Amino acid sequence: MRDVAILGVGMTKFGELWDRSFREIGIEAGFQALVDAKLSSGDLGALYLGNMASGSLIAQEHIAPLILDYSGLGPHHIAAVRVEGGGASGALALHEGWLAVASGAHDFVVVGGAEKLTDVPDVEASRITGGTADHEWEAVFGATLPGLWAMIARRHMHDFGTTREAFAQVAVQMHENGSKNPNAHYRNKITLEAVTGATPVAEPLGMLDCAPFSDGAAAVVLGPMERARKFTDTPIRLAASQVACDAMALHHRREITTVDSTVVAAKRAFAQARRAPADVQLVEVNDAYTIAGLVALEDLGFVEKGKSGPAFLNGEFARGARLSMNTSGGLKSQGQPFGAVGVAQAVEIVRQLRGEAKERQVSGATLGLAHNLGGTGGTSVVHLLERTN
Amino acid sequence: MTIARFWRETPQRYNLGGAKCTVCQTVYFPPRSVCPSCAQHRQSIGKLEPFHLSGEGEVVTFSVVHDAAEGFEMQVPYVLAIVRTREGPQLTGQVVDVDPKEVKIGLKVRATFRKLREEGKAGVIHYGYKFAPAEDWDGRPPGRGMPAHVPSELPTRPAEGSARA
After folding, report:
1. Bridge-partner residues for A68, per DSSP?
2. Per-residue pLDDT of chain B (165 residues; tens, 9 = 90+)
């Protein structure tokens, strides 16, 4: 396998983009990435598009050639493949792109992620995204995605004494980070009292513990590291790309409070890159629910199991602290367009490592980790991104 | 959901019909055709037999749901829980016949046959299991004092809440 570099990145604003269509946002992100990479479309070997549920959300399947076509790449007849893994679809597409370039099957590929969630009412979006858990044995009995994560939160509080304030503070911190991100869905700051006092969704989680349903798209261009200098002065090396899966239903997992797929994907990723959690300065975790952000910090190896709450309240994961968590604002504030999330995480880390993150720039970072997850952890994807100069 | 899609799961949803691997004796719900616990999965193919759960268990974790799943709007707030059955498998279901404030981790429950939801005024009515408090069972873990139809040589399991079932 050869080394793979990210040569270009792009993303749309995330949010309720009522005036923009799925194909419009998909194309915008892709073109930004191609222009950023200074690559001409004729060089491309393939397109991988992460998307969770276009069929249910916009009644359009077969979307990879659609985006290819409207990007003007139809005449090149390159391969366009949709990749689905629930909320992890974006990072799963990035993994496919990495495999293609690392193996030598292709030299240059575009990896996109796009989702259009606001063309259906909220209730329907909840039902559709709830399909990333086990429909027959969870949803049919009244389980919702927030309900399942709430049960993880409840058990975490029971086993480790994690406080309500600890995961509420995740939301506060994410909105603080997102306030500096022009692409974020929410740029307002919120208080701890606002989070703990918000309308309950599934106790102990309230409205402000849950990431929004957003529209949005993101894209990256990948190529072989040995040719990267032709295109950019600061190629970012994909030092690891790992996927791990587990039982679909939360009740079938080894433990309620540990997402084994994340633990395994992270271990494999650190082994692949020959690095350790202590080497990482930047992390983008899948904080679809505040508790999910805390659990991810533990499962990725950044803090001991059960101790994320006190560590978070202690400010250990604030921007510029020992580990900067979700400088983008995370899913909570930057937004949650399911299939786009995993790609947008990579975009944020690349911008940070290149020193292009403006107001939210963390200084001196050389290694970042992106963690993308589907459902309650049926699929986890971990990428390590490294600046090499 | 179509009638057939729900109807075909009736043995599980109405009667807690699971499966037991006759190679390693692990019990599963819902039934599986391959045993994930057997070191060599192939040896378990065709060796899983029907096995009914007693329906008794205890709450491993729960939430009080206010923002309902589709078809459950009339039931809010409702208690959603993961229940660890005395035979090992864990299930997700509602806990009913109790004040939500009284529900806690470790609460002993027994499965009860209830209406789950209805699809609008003219649609299909779905029935299945929910759980109700049952302080009359002693809560002994699998392997001790089991009913006659449960084998006593169930494999040793990790701590509560960590069963792979």
Report:
1. none
2. 678 888 888 889 999 999 999 999 999 999 999 998 887 778 888 899 999 999 999 999 999 999 998 889 999 999 999 999 999 999 999 999 999 999 999 999 999 999 999 888 888 899 999 999 997 766 655 433 333 333 333 344 444 444 343
* Residues of chain B with C-beta less than 8 angstroms from the C-beta of A145: none
pLDDT at A327 over 80: yes
Distances (CA, A) of A150 to A60, A139, A245, A261, A337: 32, 14, 21, 19, 21
| Chain B residues within 8 Å of chain A (Cβ atoms) | 1, 6, 9, 13, 30, 60-70, 72, 75, 77-78, 80-82, 90-94, 105, 116-117, 126, 128-130, 158, 161-162, 164-165
- Residue A338 pLDDT more than 50? yes
Our CA-based measurement puts residue B44 at a distance from the nearest CA of chain A, in whole angstroms, of 18
Contact between chains at A123 and B70 (C-beta distance less than 8 A): yes
Residues of A in contact with B92 (CB under 8 A): 137-138, 141, 143, 249-251
Domains A4-121+214-234 and A125-211+237-387 share a fold: yes
What sign has the CA pseudo-torsion B151, B157, B161, B163?
negative
**Contact predicate A224/A2, CB 8 Å:** yes
> What H or E segment, with its residue span, contains residue B126?
strand B125-133
pLDDT digits over A254-289, tens only?
Answer: 999 999 999 999 999 999 999 999 999 999 999 999
Q: Do B92 and A126 touch (CB under 8 A)?
A: no
Domain A4-121+214-234 annotated CATH 3.40.47.10:
yes
User: In terms of CATH architecture, what is A125-211+237-387?
Assistant: 3-Layer(aba) Sandwich (3.40)
Q: Domains, chain B, ranges and CATH? A: 54-133 (2.40.50)
